[in-house]
Amino acid sequence: MASLAQTGKSRSEMTSEEQLVEYTMDCYAELTKGSYGEWVGLAELRKELKNTKSYNRSFIDRMWKSIDGQKVNGRRCVFIPEANRKTLTDDDHEAALIIGGEEQHLMMFEKKSPRER
User: Fold this and answer.
1) What confidence score (pLDDT) does residue 43 get?
2) Is residue 2 part of a domain?
3) Distant-in-sequence, close-in-space partners of 48: CB < 8 Å, separation ≥ 6
4) Does residue 112 contact residue 36 with C-beta atoms inside 8 Å?
5) Domain for residue 4, yes or no?
6) Which residues of the chain have pLDDT under 50?
7) What are phi and psi of 15, to 5 degrees?
8) CA distance 105 to 42
9) Distance of alpha carbon 78 from alpha carbon 66, whole angstroms
């Protein structure tokens, strides 16, 4: 997935899918205060995304599944389940992304390099 700078497109010229990926990255950066390589709960991310732009849940899920394990703007996107299931709330279960029949509760955009913050 190319970044805005790479495509030369403004947000208004982007497809809905491209816009959602950009909004997802923006929300992730907001939640991590710009620090990549941090895990973010999908419940938090969905709440932040909803405040930014209104998207249908199934559209978000399809888009997120399509970027799982892929590089987005030079950063690999990863979804994983919460290891300590006892800590999960009802909101966490509701917000989970189902991949391969398993709930994924956390998302991360990896750092581009080990020295990046």
Assistant:
1) 97
2) no
3) 27, 30, 31
4) yes
5) no
6) 1-7
7) -70, 165
8) 5
9) 11
Q: Is residue 20 part of a domain?
A: yes
**What's the token pair of residue 105?**
């509760």
User: What is the extent of the structural domain holding 28?
Assistant: 16-109
Burial class (CB in 10 A: 0-12, 13-18, 19+), 14: middle
Task: Examine residue 115 and state whether it is found in any structural domain, yes or no.
Answer: no
Model confidence over 29-48: pLDDT tens digits? 999 999 999 999 999 999 98
Total number of domains constituting the chain: 1
First CA to last CA distance, the chain:
22
* Four-residue CA torsion sign, 85, 89, 90, 94: negative
Among candidate residues 78, 2, 1, the one with its CA nearest the CA of residue 42: 78
- At residue 5, the pLDDT reads 42
Q: What are phi and psi of 5, to 5 degrees?
A: -60, -40
pLDDT of res. 14: 67
Which pLDDT does position 94 carry in this prediction? 96
